[in-house]
Amino acid sequence: MTPSPFPTLFQQKVCWAALTCLAGLVIILIVLGLGWTVLEAIKIFQAILMPIAIATVLTYLLNPIVSWLCRHGFSRMFGVVTVFAMLFFFIGGLVFWIGPTLQKQTNSFIKNLPDYTQHVQAIVTTSTDFINRFMESSQHRDGATPLTQADKIHDYTVTLMNEGVAWLQQKVPAMVEALGRFATSSIGGVFGIFGTLISLILVPILLFFFLLKSTAIKEGWSYYLPLPSSPLKEEVVSLLLEINNIIITFFRGQLVVSFIDGTIIATALMIFVHLDFAPLLGLMVGILGIVPYAGIIISLIPAILIAVAQFGDWWHPLLVTFIFLGANNIDGIFISPRIVGHSVGLHPLLIILSVFTWSIILGGLLGALLAVPLTATLFVFLRRYVWEGKENFSKTNCSNS
Q1: Are residues 71 and 197 in the same domain?
Q2: Are residues 83 and 214 in the same domain?
Q3: End-to-end alpha carbon distance in the chain
Q4: 232 near 80, Cβ under 8 Å?
Q5: What is the H or E stretch that residue 65 is in?
Q6: What is the pLDDT of residue 268?
Q7: Residue 334: how many CA atoms within 13 Å on its side-chain side?
Q8: What are 35-87's pLDDT values in tens digits?
Q9: Mean pLDDT by groups of 10 residues along the chain of 401 residues
Q10: Quick check: 39 and 357 in contact, CB under 8 A?
Q11: Are residues 247 and 126 both part of a single domain?
Q12: Separation CA 284–CA 266 (nearest Å)
């Protein structure tokens, strides 16, 4: 009787499957470890990476102007100096425009501060009286009278309000503390707040170098990749170029979109609400809007507070909220699709989630600034090597069969 071969075919398949799973697990652990190391390094060196990120974004936005001047016969140095002069006059004009407006409205705020205080006190008193009357009405109900559906809804609402107030009293201190930690981590790192402010001085220096050497960097960056000439290097270069094109398109389009949003909001606040500081709020939306949805969300809070202090009712803050929401919807439906288009390939909801996620992972401002580039990078990886890879694999199998 011939002995059966050892190991058997089934045992060989089991061993190879086990080794494959083990190798896959090791690769996943290595990738996760490298990712965790990179994220921790980014958190630690935020003060260094922040000016680099800001200068890179500004280079994406300003390089077309320099390239246009170069195409019309000017030297690269002249183009960069011209752009810096334009920036200087723009910022100077902005300061001269904001300065008198800010001084005028600050004097108006100080002059009308007693009226603002009375408005706030009146709205707080009115709201408190309404809530008290609403809650006390259930205490005067006759116990023998059967409860109607409206009474049940009323009692349930009162219970929810009581539970909500108790929850806020319990959670607000922790929220404030967490917000403080979040704000500190956004500009902290090992260098602290002072180191971060000092590092921002590097932004114009880095911007000048990036603009001056952008052509050389664009033409020769692939030579510095630590890879020999091979199909692998060509694939890496193609991948990085695709990611770079998406990032360039996004930031240039987002700048235009943010200033359109700021103009719409400032105009609407001045015409329909007559809100103080409306131009400054629009400018805030335009500047912060380079991070998706940050300009509208962050600017909405001071706009509501100003409306409450200025008018002392709930109608004007509600109108301000409608204006911001309307501008956001106009942006999402009409403006962004036509200016930014579908070149980024990311759904607006995914962009919102990515901004919040990367802000938490990387510690605030740097994460919000890099949210779309990082998410676009992951998207390109998945599209090239997972989704399209599966489609190509399926097509190959169908053709072979």
Answers
A1: yes
A2: yes
A3: 41
A4: no
A5: helix 46-71
A6: 93
A7: 7
A8: 788 777 777 777 777 788 888 888 888 888 898 999 888 888 999 999 999 98
A9: 66 86 90 82 76 85 89 89 89 76 68 66 65 57 54 61 63 61 52 62 88 83 80 85 83 85 92 86 86 82 82 83 90 75 65 78 72 81 73 51 50
A10: no
A11: no
A12: 10
Residue pair 206/51 in contact by the 8 Å Cβ criterion: yes
> Containing H/E element for 48?
helix 46-71
Which two structure tokens, joined as six digits, stand for 309? 């202090």
Number of separate domains in the chain:
2
The pTM of this model reads 0.64
- Answer yes or no: do 389 and 360 share one domain: yes
What is residue 332's DSSP assignment?
A: I
Handedness of CA 332, 335, 338, 341 (dihedral sign): negative
| Tokens 């407006």, residue located | 101
Residues 210 and 310 in one domain: no
| The pair of three-digit structure tokens given for residue 239, joined into one six-digit string | 């991948």
Backbone phi and psi for residue 145, each to the nearest 5 degrees, phi listed first: -75, 130
Residues 218 and 324 in one domain: no
The parent domain of residue 167 ranges over 45-136+153-224
Q: Do 108 and 255 belong to one domain? A: no
DSSP secondary structure, 381-401, as one string? HHIIIIIHHHHHHHHHHHHH-
Does residue 397 contact residue 219 with C-beta atoms inside 8 Å? no
Query: Residue 12 domain-assigned?
Result: no
Which residue among 166, 201, 224 closes a domain? Answer: 224
The verdict on residue 34 lying in a domain is no
Q: Do 247 and 209 reside in the same domain of the chain?
A: no
Whether 351 is covered by a domain: the verdict is: yes
Tokens 């320099």 map to which residue? 66
Of 368, 280, 323, nearest to 104 (Cα)?
280
- Two tokens at 102? 């800010």
DSSP 177: H
pLDDT reported for residue 379 = 83
Give domain status of residue 167, yes or no: yes
Domain's final residue, options 175, 202, 224: 224
Please state, in angstroms and rounded to a whole number, the distance separating the CA atoms of residues 16 and 139: 74
Instruction: Evaluate whether 316 touches 307 at the Cβ level (below 8 Å).
Output: yes
What's the confidence (pLDDT) of residue 189? 47
